[in-house]
Specification:
Elements (H helix, E strand, L loop, with lengths): L2 H9 L6 H13 L8 H15 L3 E5 L5 H9 L5 E6 L5 H8 L8 E5 L2 H7 L6 E4 L6 H9 L7 E5 L16 H15 L3 E6 L5 E6 L1
Parallel strand pairs: 1-2, 1-4, 2-3, 4-5
Antiparallel strand pairs: 5-7, 6-7
Length: about 210
């Protein structure tokens, strides 16, 4: 997608709003890897998924700035919740700064720590899961959450095209790309789900549990 096409798409889509725009600016000025946040286009798409699916419980693995969290929370009904997990506790002040300003803050449950330890302790089932964390562990996250999902639940996995590295020869030291390749192959072979990769930004895989 060219920048011109993306600009046209964004100009004909809903605006991100003042809070998300402020978060985006803050991230680009003060964080080392601002490209990691979901951004305007993906944020509106995540919100639309929540509008359509009306999930009661959402699990987000990898909060980062909280941008995607806030986008999904916008579309959740009053009695719904999003449980969001972030391993980097240095992001806590940044995340809480913006979550606290959101009119949807009561729908958001924040957890800081290792998702591999937190997820087994969550006594919840989830209608929607968004995976955007350590690429080396995507397959492990998938295995952890699968039994917590009812039939008809949707998993969204981000970065599954990984800057096109999925098509390049794998360097032995590149554990992130190896993790994405293993995950993509795992999902392709899993007959318990239907799946499709969307060429959105860095690749977004939709996985529907049968």
């Amino acid at each position: 997608m060219t920048k011109e096409i993306e600009s046209y798409i964004l100009s004909h889509s809903d605006e991100e709003g003042s809070l998300l725009a402020a978060l985006n600016r803050d991230a680009n000025v003060n964080l080392l890897r601002p490209r990691m946040l979901s951004g305007h286009l993906q944020g509106r798409i995540l919100k639309m998924f929540c509008r359509m699916l009306k999930p009661k419980r959402v699990l987000e693995i990898g909060t980062y700035t909280g941008y995607a969290t806030l986008c999904m929370a916008e579309a959740l009904e009053k009695d719904a919740e999003i449980h969001t997990l972030e391993i980097n506790d240095e992001m806590e002040d940044f995340i809480r700064k913006y979550v606290s300003q959101s009119p949807d803050k009561d729908k958001i449950k924040l957890y800081f720590g290792d998702a591999m330890e937190i997820i087994p302790a969550l006594d919840e089932s989830f209608d929607l899961v968004f995976i955007d964390a350590d690429k080396r562990l995507y397959s492990d996250y998938y295995d952890l959450i699968f039994d917590k999902l009812p039939a008809g639940a949707l998993i969204l996995a981000d970065n599954t095209l990984w800057d096109g590295k999925v098509l390049e020869p794998l360097h032995p030291a590149d554990k992130q790309t190896a993790g994405i390749l293993a995950f993509n192959d795992k999902i392709k072979a899993d007959q318990r789900v239907e799946k499709v990769i969307l060429p959105l930004r860095d690749g977004l895989t939709m996985i529907w549990k049968k």
